[in-house]
Amino acid sequence: IRVRPLTCAETRRGDRQVVHSLGDGTVHVSAARHDATFGFSAVFNAGASQETVFEGSGVRQLVELAIDGFSCTVFAFGQTGSGKTYTLMGPLTQGETQPAAPGLLGLMQRSFACLLEQSRSRGSDLVLSASYLEIYNEQVRDLLSPGPPCALLLRWSKTRGFYVENQLSVDFESLEAIHNLLQQGAEPRRRRTSAHALNRHSSRSHALLTIHIRSRAVSTHLAPPSTYPSKQGTLCFVDLAGSERVKETGSSGELSVEANNINRSLLALGHCISLLAKPRGKRTHIPYRDSKLTRLLARSLGGSGITLMIACISPSSRCLSETLSTLHYASRARRVTTRP
């Protein structure tokens, strides 16, 4: 759980802080008619730095597991304006002309640096590539393809599970190269964002950046390359669009349609998580096909992957119902077990 600070607007408005970190992975919500304590793997309060979240959440271990051949996923969940994109990507003002201060870099940039550092220290022959897509109004669009993003087909196969047909994958070897791919996909003309009453830079789509890691152990013997043991792992970062109440955001027209599609897909994700949280013997059919988002996350949620949810919440009394909803959502996700 990451609790963001109260914003200047919330402070001016007189909002009270109703969320408090008690230490040791517990968070307490205290307000009129609401008094609840939740336990999680880790809780980061408003003063926690990006580096603290990276080291304390387990993302570094996920990078190492991905190099070892596991399928790893990190996804940020929470209401709009709760700090998901900042946690994953850092400040939105960064770019080639205005790079972010090193201390503000998000989990993604820190993971890229860790990945390249690990690849050099392990002495393995790593081939790295990246793919980047968004789900906007239930359409899957490639954020790295040349020209304006166009809709791609989501297909199913017995060997691959759900996959995106004709998705572009770009090789990279340096930190600068992967940062450029991230910035290219996050450009306003590609990734859909809009301003509304709760957030000046609200993501209107779910974005998935996947790092594909193919490794081959470097042998000191003169064995043919085909005899080297090889591994294939993935490291996927999912920046979910925020859940929101249309009434609160003042959205209308196209923004309202986007909000309804976002909420519908997050509801489908929550339904899958609720069913996966049940004991294995009591599980019924898991409806991954209810949305494009749950199809693409099927392997991460209930398959052979290792998955970390970072739930971002606001401490404001005005956001109490959304905060409680996020905490209950994350509590259910914590009970899901996979078999990596």
From TrEMBL:
Which GO terms of the cellular component aspect does the record hold? microtubule; microtubule associated complex
> Domain Kinesin motor spans what residues?
1-336
Q: Where is ATP bound in this sequence?
A: G78, Q79, T80, G81, S82, G83, K84, T85
Single Gene Ontology BP term? mitotic spindle organization
Q: Which UniProt keywords apply?
A: ATP-binding, Cytoplasm, Cytoskeleton, Microtubule, Motor protein, Nucleotide-binding
Give the GO molecular function terms: ATP binding; microtubule binding; microtubule motor activity
Q: What is its main location?
A: cytoplasm
State the PROSITE patterns in the record: KINESIN_MOTOR_1 (PS00411), KINESIN_MOTOR_2 (PS50067)
The domain of life is Eukaryota
* Compartments it resides in: Cytoplasm, Cytoskeleton
Q: Which InterPro entries match?
A: Kinesin-like_fam, Kinesin_motor_CS, Kinesin_motor_dom, Kinesin_motor_dom_sf, P-loop_NTPase
Q: Which family does it belong to?
A: Belongs to the TRAFAC class myosin-kinesin ATPase superfamily. Kinesin family.
Protein name stated in the entry: Kinesin-like protein
